Amino acid sequence: MQPSTLLGRLPGLRHFIEVARQGSFRAAADKLHVAPSAVSKQIKNLELALDTELFRRDRGRGGLELTEAGEILMFRCASVVNELTIAQDEIAELRGLQRGELRLGVNEVLASDLLPGILRDMSYNHPGLKFHIVVENTREIVQRLQEGEIDIGLGYNFPPTPEIETLATLRRRTYAITSLDHPMARLRQVRLSEIDGEKVIFPDTSIPMRHLLENALAQAGVEVREVMNTNSFTLLRQMVESGMGIGIVFGSFLQIRRERLAFVELLDLPFESPPVACCRMAGRAPTASSAAFAASIKTIFVNYGG
Asked: How far apart are CA 250 and CA 203, in angstroms?
């Protein structure tokens, strides 16, 4: 079959992909908002054009199953769909990113600190750009990258694996944060030993930073009073601002909303803070919107002071 002839079957290919994904003509029809008979006709025409069956239809209620030929076509179609998505974004880039989409996964602390300023600037420069932002832990971000649900991941503690390409990294300083009326607020730096006896709001045990802090305090023989723990750094900072206790964080972005907090650099730590990383899946051509986002991140990382 000539390539030009196969290209004429693009509607049939679209229906074929959806049937393969859904496992039935009816479910595919519901997804495509067409009649099941229309889906069945498209698949039949595609099979006639290719002179082969693409689905085994003798499974009863077990659903449709791809034949070997169907498996081959589905594998190739996945690459085609990916390339068409990239082409769509590249065309959008020619139009000044007016119709592209940024699909991003980001850790919560960066979503409130770093991200708002970047999104504000991108939205101003490209008013037609659509944003899809998922706030998750790093493990979930990696899974979404692998499954193609997002184009860029931004966060801490990405696993060192060849399938993940690191576009930019930044190692931030570690700070004790306090309310503005706390005695420590007027200082620029403190040693770890100087927070002995303080009331501290900790990240909870689901966050790797918690274990770094516990080990550092134990090694230094520093005892603090834990008054609260949370998996939300936004809430942690709010409670520090209210005067409930001090917190310990990596970095001091806070680009949009300047909270009433003092950032006091914490010295004598037995660990280096994990780097912030901007990542994508290796081997996949970047969309125009994700390339623009990565360029913004690189600029910020180069100019960032702490």
From this structure: 12
Question: What is the rounded distance in angstroms from the CA atom of residue 48 to the CA atom of residue 189?
Answer: 75
Strand partners, 56: 65
Q: Which of 219, 210, 222 is nearest to 249 (CA)?
A: 210
What's residue 258's pLDDT? Answer: 66
Joined tokens for residue 192 = 């770890």
Q: Which domains does the chain have, with CATH numbers?
A: 3-91 (1.10.10.10), 95-171+275-303 (3.40.190.10), 174-267 (3.40.190.290)
Model pLDDT, residue 99: 61
Q: How far does the chain reach from its first CA to its final CA, in angstroms? A: 60
pTM of the model: 0.62
Q: Which phi and psi angles does 115 have, rounded to 5°?
A: -65, -45
**Where does residue 87 fall: left (phi above 0), alpha (psi -120 to 50 degrees), or beta otherwise?**
alpha
Cβ–Cβ under 8 Å, residues 99 and 92: yes
Q: What is the pLDDT of residues 100-156, one digit of tens each?
A: 788 999 998 888 888 888 888 888 887 878 899 999 999 999 999 998 889 999 999
Grouping H, G, I as helix, E, B as strand and the rest as coil, residue 227 is strand
CB contact at 8 A, 181 and 243: yes
2 compared with 289, residue with greater pLDDT: 289
Q: What is the pLDDT of residues 197-231, one digit of tens each?
A: 999 999 999 888 899 999 999 999 999 999 999 99
- CA–CA distance, 126 with 197 (Å, rounded to integer): 50
Pick the closest to residue 153 from 119, 204, 111, 206 (CA basis).
111
